[in-house]
Write a structure and sequence with these properties.
This protein has seven helices and nine strands, in the order H-H-E-E-H-E-H-E-H-E-E-H-E-E-E-H. By secondary structure, the chain is an alpha/beta fold. The protein has a single domain, classed as Aminopeptidase (3-Layer(aba) Sandwich). The protein has a four-stranded mixed sheet with strand order 3-7-4-5, with helices on both faces. It has a three-stranded mixed sheet with strand order 1-2-6, with no helix packed on it. Helix 2 packs across helix 7.
Amino acid sequence: MIEKMKFDMGGAGAVLGAARCIGGLAPPGVEVHFIIAACENMVSAEAMRPGDILTASNSKTIEVLNTDAEGRLTLADALVYADRLGDVDAIVDIATLTGACIVALGPDYAAMYTDDEELKENLMTGGELLWRMPLAPEYKEQLKSPIADLANLGAPGGGGSITAALFLKEFIHDVSKDAQWAHLDIAGPVWNDKKGGATGFGVRTLVGLVESMSA
């Protein structure tokens, strides 16, 4: 799907869209940081290979089992950056992270992963179709690697969207230990060929979140 890499940056697109809306609305009493881990996603001599070991910006090592699970590697560093801002109330990441999410929820719903009830309710204020999924601790075993701190892919057999969320959870709460956190997997609703492509899904959710936290 090289021709659809613009689909694969749907999460970054939602962040940019939300930044434009929130900049115009200027909700009072809230400070928002918009972070995008932008990089070239292209086959080249410098491309990573199966079996490579990468070191994230928080020094955790990652065994690359599948080079198509690449978005979570850049997103991990974005989460570390957000976490290190310090004195953060909430961190929300959004990405077209897994095809497994589409298998689980179809083309219309995005998966929402969070252990925080207040953040869950605030994310729902945007009116977009979100379905809460479990951060199942028993699946964390699938991310173990014999040669690195963790692997970038869960074991075969299902639950790929869950293990991806658990992977990302490894890159928060080192500094901002009390920050609320949510991961939104928007792989299904972010693109609709019948409607001409990108849908802008996620913008309303992020704007609604910020407005709900505004003074």
